Amino acid sequence: MLVNAPISGIEKLDFKAILNGQSVLDDKPIMYWQLSGPAFDDESIIPAGSYTVVADEKRGAVTLRTADGTTVAEGDLGIGVTTVAAKGSTPSVTGKITGVKVDFPCIEVSGTVTVTQGGHSVTVTATVKACLF
Description:
- This protein is mostly beta strands.
- It contains one helix and eight strands; from the N terminus they run E-H-E-E-E-E-E-E-E.
- It has an eight-stranded antiparallel beta sheet with strand order 1-2-3-4-5-8-7-6.
- It is elongated and about 45 Å long.
- The two termini are 26 Å apart.
């Protein structure tokens, strides 16, 4: 089972700043992941559990952190800004885990969160990879 949930308040991102090329996701939690199943057993490099995905836009990186703040994996951050049909000013937030790849000794997990408001949409993608060696 893989669950992705956007962080509460992510819909308050400063769209104008992002459109102007300013960094707004520096050490910013963007989504929660709940990971479980055979690939995430107790012996796995990423054990089953709840994690926070934290973006660092300046480095173009994300970290996967446990509840106590320990980083268990790092990976690549992607940010896409698009213009969409305006549907009002109420923000809409969606998110999903887009993939899990187990290639021993590595596990790779990817997910997205999209915030849409007015005529703009910002999609943040995160891919973390952890290997035994």
